[in-house]
Amino acid sequence: MTDRIHSEHDHGIALLTVDAPNSRNALTLDLSAELAAAVARAESDEDVHAVIVTGAPPAFCAGADLTALGEADANGLRSVYAGFLAVAGCSLPTIAAVGGAAVGAGLNLALAADVRLAGPRAKFIPRFLELGLHPGGGMTWMTQRLLGPQQAAAMTLFGEALDAAAAVRAGLALRVVDGDHEALLTAARELAAPAVSAPRELLVSTKRTMRLTSGLTEHSAAVDAEIAPQLESLAAPAFAERLAAMKARITRR
C-alpha cells in the first residue's frame, strides 16, 4: 500500500489523514511535503472553512522517519518539519483528531493544531531525549506556550508521556471522545461546524488577531488590535444579513 496524505474536502471541512500503515504514520520527507501541499490546497479552496488533521488508525503519527532524520542537515530538518509547520501556520481553524500515539514529530503535528481532540487510546509522547535527540520543530516553544513551564519541562526534559485523560487535565487536549475513530472524526466535525457556518474571511481575520494578541501583555493593546478588524466586519454584508435575520426572528416571536 502506498503511503499518502488522504485529503477530502467536504461540507466546508478539509479532512487530512496521514496514511502510512506500515510505519504507524511516520512522516517521511515525501509525506511531510504532501501534508504541506494539502494544507495549502485547503487554504486556497474558498469552500473550506476548517481543517481536521488525523492519522489512519491505530496510530496518529509515530514521528519522523528516522532514516530521514539521521541523514538530515539543517535544510533536511526543515523539510521534515514542513508538514506540521504548515498546519501551525494555517490561516484557517485547525483541529487535530488524535486517536492513537502522537510521538516526537507526531506530537509536534498535534501541538501545531489550534485544538486537539483525543480518542480513548490517544497518547502524547515526546521521545526526543530517549532517542538521544534534541527536540526540534519548535517543540520546546509549543509545549511551554500550551502547558506552562512545569508540565512542559516534565514532557521535554523528563520524557513524561500523557494519555488522553492526562492530556485534558494538562490543557493539551480539549476533551476525550469515547468510541472508535469515526466517533472521534464526528466529534471533530461537530466542533468545526460553527466555523463552517461563519464567514470565511472573518475566520481568517479572527485567527490572525488571536496570533497577534497572544503576545500582548496589556488588555488595552488587545482592544486596539481588535478594533480595525471588528469595524471591517461591521461593514461587511454578512453582518448586515445576519443581523437582519436575527431581528426578523425576534419580531416573529
From TrEMBL:
CDD domains: crotonase-like. Pfam families: ECH_1 (PF00378). Belongs to the enoyl-CoA hydratase/isomerase family. This is Enoyl-CoA hydratase. It comes from Amycolatopsis ultiminotia.
